[in-house]
Design brief:
Number of strands: 2
Largest sheet: 2 strands, antiparallel
Structural class: mainly alpha
Number of helices: 4
Distance between the termini: 16 Å
Shape: globular
Radius of gyration: 12 Å
Length: 82
């Protein structure tokens, strides 16, 4: 059995904690845009599902992680989501 858990599975849904880990570094600048988020995600070796979520975002700038997450209401806080 894998020690990565469900979030490490390529087919597991993206959770808020996983998503935030991969994009939080993009918020060092004022108002972060989708290109900034897409550039930050590879540094954390984000799964394709994280990139898919990023590609669903509207083309605008975000003030904070909470502002960003408001555009992705389907992301779960449940780390054991399946």
């Amino acid at each position: 059995m894998s020690t990565e858990g469900v979030a490490g599975s390529p087919t597991a849904p993206v959770t808020v904690p996983e998503f935030c880990v991969h994009v939080e570094d993009a918020f060092v600048a004022d108002r972060t845009g989708v290109p900034d988020l897409l550039n930050a995600a590879p540094a954390g070796r984000a799964r394709p599902a994280v990139f898919a979520a990023l590609n669903r975002l509207p083309d605008r700038r975000f003030e904070s992680l909470m502002d960003l997450l408001s555009e992705l209401p389907d992301l779960s806080f449940d780390c054991d989501a399946q």
